[in-house]
């Protein structure tokens, strides 16, 4: 390819990029009310066309360097489709693919085509409404809580760990010889004292009941969606967003609670996490009541969770009291 052809391609590419840049600037402006609303299905179809055109561009670079005219035509087709896509959706990112022709460029083209494929594939998975997006986020919180719960159920008392160790002593000796210090990592959470195990079991109960609350909350919201007057209304969406933040807050405290169960257990942090969960639960109940969506099952789940948290906090207080006994015994009362 001669110098003149490269300069022409570079100039055309810059023109296309400038056009795309101008298109991006339109996003800062409020769409005119006279414009017709574009359905999400149309956006997805345009995304598929962009993907197909990217495939065609990628095929040009599988053999010898393509002719200048072919490059110009494919460049124009791709950017025209891309501009149309950008005009219909804000969920796209422009990749600058402008480089000088070289062997390195030939290797990078498939990667860029793959990036377009990934972007178009992700577009199809994008929630079509705000309500759907919030619902997915709440479900993700529940999934994360379930993972923490499963991990916490693997905690074992020291006595049980000792019995297992005696049965597998020879196998552990061989693994320790091969792995060195790495074998000690598997013992994490397997040496809880009887008091620590009581707290762990109560905390696991709290996590289980919190997961039930999350499920009932999602069911309640699903029931509300059947009312067309609420679906996608501003007040309804605002309430859902507040409920999502409360759910995420409970999820964070569940992570904190799970981390504190490993010995040595951090009792003040466990108590603080329990109090924050209770506070979020109260706000969640109020928010759902405002939407007239608080079901009997949700109320019952909240009641059971509060009971579990009271039991946990009671055990925490008992543990604090027992920890004070050795300290009190060591006190020396002087004669005055």
From TrEMBL:
Pfam families: GCIP_C, GCIP_N. GO terms for cellular component: cytoplasm; nucleus. It is found in: Cytoplasm; Nucleus. It comes from the Eukaryota. Residues 178-284 form the Cyclin-D1-binding protein 1-like C-terminal domain. The keyword Cytoplasm applies. Belongs to the CCNDBP1 family. The keyword Phosphoprotein does not apply. It comes from Escallonia rubra. Residues 42-93, 94-157 form the Cyclin-D1-binding protein 1-like N-terminal domain. Residues 176-185 have a biased composition (Acidic residues). Keywords: Cell cycle, Cytoplasm, Nucleus. Residues 156-192 are annotated as: Disordered. This is Cyclin-D1-binding protein 1. Its main location: cytoplasm. InterPro entries: GCIP-like, GCIP-like_N, GCIP_C.
């Amino acid at each position: 390819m001669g110098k003149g052809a490269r300069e022409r391609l570079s100039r055309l590419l810059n023109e296309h990029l400038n056009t795309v840049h101008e298109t991006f600037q339109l996003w800062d402006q409020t769409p005119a009310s006279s414009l017709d609303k574009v359905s999400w299905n149309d956006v997805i179809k345009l995304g598929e066309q962009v993907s197909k055109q990217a495939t065609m561009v990628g095929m040009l670079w599988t053999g010898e360097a393509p002719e200048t005219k072919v490059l110009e035509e494919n460049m124009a087709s791709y950017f025209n489709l891309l501009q149309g896509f950008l005009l219909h959706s804000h969920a796209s990112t422009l990749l600058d693919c402008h480089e000088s022709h070289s062997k390195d460029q030939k290797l990078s083209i498939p990667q860029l085509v793959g990036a377009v494929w990934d972007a178009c594939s992700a577009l199809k998975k994008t929630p079509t409404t705000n309500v759907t997006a919030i619902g997915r986020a709440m479900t993700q919180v529940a999934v994360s809580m379930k993972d923490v719960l499963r991990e916490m159920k693997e905690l074992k008392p020291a006595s049980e760990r000792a019995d297992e160790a005696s049965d597998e002593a020879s196998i552990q000796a061989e693994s320790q010889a091969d792995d060195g210090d790495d074998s000690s990592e598997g013992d994490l959470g397997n040496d809880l004292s009887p008091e620590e195990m009581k707290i762990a079991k109560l905390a696991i109960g709290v996590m289980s009941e919190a997961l039930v609350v999350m499920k009932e909350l999602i069911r309640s919201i699903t029931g509300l969606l059947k009312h067309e007057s609420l679906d996608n209304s501003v007040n309804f969406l605002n309430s859902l967003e507040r409920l999502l933040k409360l759910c995420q807050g409970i999820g964070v405290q569940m992570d904190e609670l799970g981390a504190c169960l490993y010995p040595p257990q951090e009792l003040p942090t466990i108590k603080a996490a329990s109090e924050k969960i209770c506070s979020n639960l109260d706000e969640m109940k109020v928010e759902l009541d405002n939407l007239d969506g608080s079901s009997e099952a949700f109320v019952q789940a909240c009641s059971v969770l509060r009971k579990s948290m009271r039991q946990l906090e009671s055990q925490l207080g008992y543990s604090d009291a027992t920890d004070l006994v050795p300290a009190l015994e060591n006190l020396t009362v002087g004669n005055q």
